Amino acid sequence: MNGLQVLGTGRCLPGRRVTNEDFARTLDTSDEWIAGRTGIRQRYFCAEGETAASLATVAARRALDDADISPADVGVCIAATFTADRRTPALACEVQAALGLPETALCLDVNAACTGFVTALETARCLLLGGQMAGPYALVLGAEKISSLLDFSDRSTCVLFGDGAGAAVVRLDAQAPWAAVFGTRGDGQVLHGGGPDDPFLAMDGRAVFRFAVETVPRCIRAVLEKAGLTLGEVDRLVLHQANSRIIHGIARKLDEDPARFYENMQRYGNTSAASIPIALDEMRRDGQLLPGQTVLCAGFGAGLTWGGVLLRA
Ligand code: ACO
Q1: Is 243 in the pocket of ligand 1 (CB under 6 A)?
Q2: Number of structural domains in the chain
Q3: Reported pTM
Q4: Residue 167, helix vs strand vs coil
């Protein structure tokens, strides 16, 4: 079936922990409002000197160590991000240099916001399948410094996000189930930022909420149908960690127990492309993701974009 097997994972959270109570000291907000509407209780922001590249490099090194493979065998390195430190070089190239990945590795960034990591997985799989890569392993990352795009006087956005990075080392596995489904609804109004006229991240929160609960269940059903699996045959469900209520809404639409969906936005906030690999790493290290298990990952976010893929742990 030519799916992907996860051989190792890693994560890196920056040094500045900010709780909901910390925000309530400077903004008209409260732990009750933030946690009640989103599930989020704290997040980490980059401290002085920390960058998307520094977080990505640490997460990637941990994933390589966990997989116990040599950097020399990496054929592809893809970083999913919408908050790279610079336009060029790509974050993936900075990771290549910092980790000493071979010069024969294809390195590139993917910008699909919160759908970035699943998009990067499918991109890596297709590149490996094409047979032209110089090494058998792909290093797939999600890394974000979203604090660089936040207006810290806007309570409706700044409390929702966090910085962080997660990484996975994957390789093709002929036996692993695979299906991938993606969607795009180009829209520069509902969710946007980082441009000359809109330097800060801005969104219509309710519209994003509705969009996620409408598209993600359809996407998950389409992935299952393509793979010939039922939801019950999938061991773990890992969605983008934007909001606990969104995950519960999606679970309701799928008629599934919300407890089957992993949640960690309580600790990290919405880390966009980093949220799924951070979750995979936590689960793997906590013994909640066991070798051979099938995982369904789905992301949704700015673009608007959405996507779902399968992985074998
Ligand atoms: N503290 C207190 N009150 C607040 C805060 C806050 N931090 N933020 C907004 N409010 C107020 C609003 O001003 C509004 O007040 P009003 O009624 O007096 O006008 C009231 O709370 C309700 O605001 P709503 O926006 O209607 O609240 P809602 O229940 O929709 O929750 C939220 C807002 C949490 C943003 C929700 O809509 C949501 O989670 N949306 C999805 C966001 C998301 O997932 N984004 C991910 C994509 S990010 C990416 O792709 C990069």
Answers
A1: yes
A2: 1
A3: 0.97
A4: strand
